[in-house]
Design goal:
Length: 743
């Protein structure tokens, strides 16, 4: 974590900053906003020092300065299309600093830093903000924090891809030999054709007899057949080996990518959409696969051909070679002008495709809600818009491609006319033979083809490398430290949990938890109580270290969880969620998800303890009954009891219950409560419950309000206090009475 955020500013603003700051002021934050003091597009410079907050307009407007001790509170307030930073001052009007949505994350960190200064806490902010534009060229990025396609480091990317080839050196060597053979067998046939014409069909030297010419004809035809067979063999070897190697390399990259996705933190997934990640694992990997199998071999083979052809052409006739090369600069220029412009269409296609994928994943995931509200037509309409945009981009791409091909056809046609006109004249003048002219003609088409496609291949390479960079971006993201060598091992924890002045917020400028101090003894059952949004679920997320506290520490068995071996920590924590998550597979596989070595008898015992055994036997295939995605085919109560059986079999030392009975009926709740009673025996338990009455058996209730602990005690003690918990119980009883009356 850095201690400064210092954005570059122009010389004029820098001069004004130096004029107003005292010598002993340390600049901690220097940033610009994209709205001026009148909320119009413009700029203001925000400077935070160890003593004051400064706001300097770009023009000669009023400069605001607020001493840190005068700040009462700072917060960000979202508005339509943007937001503003509110600085509440003691004895002065509120100060507002406006910004657009693109600046929201930055001002969240600025607010966090101001609050740290105001409270006298250590100044720790994160200057690594979401990037919307490329730092190098300034272009808008396809995705936040993504790679700029125009600034791909192609050489470095190719080196990284090549690393995946190292385990398959023999196959790579075979491909290299096949490349050389294919290039050679394509270069030699025009030379053989030259001899066929000049020595057999229209012999330049008329001294050869007919028998000699017939014999030579047979030999040359055999040579052509041999070259074709050699070319066929080389292409077959190359095709099979390249397909195998390309698929293997891409499979290795895909496997590496998936392993990295599994090891990334919750913060990573909070900032990214599932559809975008799926696009990287499917479309980006597919583009890389196509390039490795088709594009890269094309570049290598035709690169060798171009140099070989130029050598043969110069050897046969320098003047005619220069004539053949007349259209080449135009072909190359047109290709390199056209294809980079097509990059815009490819980029748009990628963005619209990602949007279409995101929308499709979201809709199909929530198909139950769509059908429940009869919104099929609405979702069809929502799908139609990006689908129409995708069609428009595809049409524009095809139209541009048609123009390109027509222009190329015209330029290559000019080359053909030049060869026939000037080359034919040289044949008539006796400077070259007819065979040489025909060889030139054949080489001309071999030369023009690669040159025409090099621009296209260059763009395809750019797209593939951009995909590779997006894949490597995920691979390079710092993963959770499961194997940190200096981590403290805790193979058998006791379950003692202690919060020490813990503050945390998903948006760092708006903490959800404020200064939480809580001590949970081993084997104790704690109930977290409070209204929605007060931080109950956030508290249990911190225990499992899905997130790290912004301030303070969380200890388990007197060891900071940030120092604990992550596998030791999570392998001894069991979680039963309000919405149980089951995976595709059998019921037995879902119960043993956290313990793959469990015997069938142990699975059955866990199901019995969770009151799930009887309904499982009622299924056609019992424990081998297939469960669909997210538990499709089972009721909510059945899924919940399976998740409890899974937690029982896991045998955790710390148990977390997050609204485990909120989505079931009363009869099912009674069965689940009986199962939970067995599950909590001898374990440290943190429970969140929608129905407060279900927490009567808790050793202690902890009441949260606005992210702070306001009450602690048993159910009876808190009721006698007639405080926040008492009000919650009364409100719930009143609601239950209203519902009972209506029924």
């Amino acid at each position: 974590m850095s201690t400064q955020m210092l954005e570059p500013v122009d010389v004029q603003i820098a001069g004004r900053i130096n004029e107003v700051l005292d010598d002993d002021e340390e600049v901690l934050i220097r940033a610009t906003t994209d709205l001026d003091e009148n909320r119009r597009f413009g700029r203001q410079c925000v400077v935070v020092t160890n003593r004051r907050l400064w706001v300097l307009p770009e023009s000669d407007g009023q400069i605001f300065q607020v001493p840190v001790e005068q700040i009462v509170k700072c917060r960000t307030e979202p508005l339509v299309g943007g937001g503003h930073l509110e600085v509440e001052r003691r004895g002065e009007p509120m100060l507002y600093i406006g910004y657009t949505d693109s600046q929201a994350v930055k001002f969240s960190e600025i607010t966090r830093g101001l609050e740290q200064l105001r409270q006298g806490n250590p100044f720790l902010i994160n200057p690594q903000l979401d990037k919307l534009r490329c730092d190098n060229c300034g272009r808008l990025l396809p995705e936040k924090n993504s790679i700029c396609p125009a600034c791909i480091r192609k050489r470095e990317t190719l080196k990284r891809i090549a690393v995946y080839l190292l385990p398959y050196k023999l196959k790579a060597a075979v491909i290299a030999l096949a490349f050389a053979a294919m290039a050679g067998t394509q270069l030699l046939p025009p030379l053989v054709t030259r001899h066929l014409v000049d020595d057999v069909l229209v012999p330049v030297d008329g001294t050869a007899s007919m028998d000699d010419r017939v014999s030579l004809l047979g030999l040359l035809v055999l040579a052509l057949i041999g070259l074709r067979l050699l070319n066929w063999s080389a292409e077959w070897v190359h095709g099979w080996t390249a397909a195998w190697l390309g698929a293997q390399v891409v499979a290795d990259i895909r496997g590496h990518l998936y392993r990295c996705l599994e090891m990334l933190s919750m913060q990573f997934y909070d900032k990214r959409e599932v559809g975008t990640l799926l696009s990287r694992a499917s479309r980006d990997v597919g583009l890389l696969h196509d390039f490795l199998i088709d594009g890269l071999p094309y570049i290598i083979i035709n690169g060798l051909l171009v140099f070989g052809i130029l050598g043969f052409l110069l050897w046969m006739s320098v003047p005619l070679t220069l004539y053949v090369l007349i259209p080449v600069p135009f072909l190359i220029a047109w290709g390199f002008i056209f294809w980079p412009r097509m990059r815009t269409f490819f980029s748009k296609w990628s963005q619209v495709w990602a949007s279409l994928t995101d929308r499709t994943v979201e809709t199909l995931t929530g198909i139950r809600v769509v059908k429940a509200f009869a919104q099929e037509k609405r979702e069809m309409s929502n799908f139609a818009r990006p689908n129409l945009r995708l069609r428009e981009v595809a049409q524009q791409t095809e139209i541009k491609s048609g123009v390109f091909i027509a222009t190329i056809t015209f330029l290559t046609g000019l080359g053909m006319l030049i060869v026939w006109l000037l080359g034919g004249q040289q044949v008539l003048d006796g400077r070259i033979t007819l065979g040489t002219l025909l060889a030139f003609y054949a080489y001309m088409w071999l030369l023009y083809g690669p040159l025409v496609r090099f621009g296209q291949i260059y763009v395809e390479m750019t797209r593939a490398f951009a995909s590779a960079e997006r894949i490597f971006e995920v691979i390079d993201t710092e993963s959770e430290s499961f194997e940190a060598p200096d981590a403290v091992r805790l193979p058998q924890m006791q379950g003692h949990i202690r919060f020490r002045d813990v503050t945390f917020g998903y948006d760092k400028s708006k903490p959800v938890l404020h200064g939480i101090n809580l001590d949970v003894k081993p084997g104790e059952m704690i109930g977290l109580v409070g209204k929605s949004g007060v931080g109950k679920t956030t508290t249990i997320n911190l225990i499992a270290r899905f997130y790290d506290p912004d301030q303070g520490t969380i200890e388990i068995d007197d060891v900071d969880v940030n120092r604990l071996n992550l596998h030791d920590l999570r392998s001894q924590i069991g979680i039963v969620l309000q919405e149980p998550m089951l995976f595709s597979g059998t019921i037995a596989e879902n119960i043993s998800y956290g313990r793959h070595d469990a015997t069938f008898a142990q699975i059955v015992d866990a199901a019995r303890s969770a009151n799930a055994h009887n309904f499982i036997l009622g299924k056609d295939d019992g424990y081998d009954t297939s469960v669909g995605e997210k538990g499709a085919g089972l009721s909510v109560g059945e899924c919940q009891r399976i998740s409890i059986a899974r937690a029982l079999l896991h045998n955790p030392r710390i148990l977390i219950l997050d609204e485990a009975t909120a989505s079931v009926d009363v009869a099912t709740e009674q069965q689940i409560q009986q199962a939970l009673g067995k599950l909590t025996e001898g374990r440290t338990t943190i429970a969140i419950a929608h129905r407060l009455s279900t927490l009567r058996n808790a050793d202690r209730l902890v009441v949260l309000d606005q992210g702070r602990i306001v009450e602690q005690g048993t159910h009876t003690e808190l009721m006698s206090k007639r405080g926040v918990f008492y009000d919650l119980v009364q409100l719930q009883q009143a609601m239950d009475a209203i519902i009972a009356t209506r029924e």
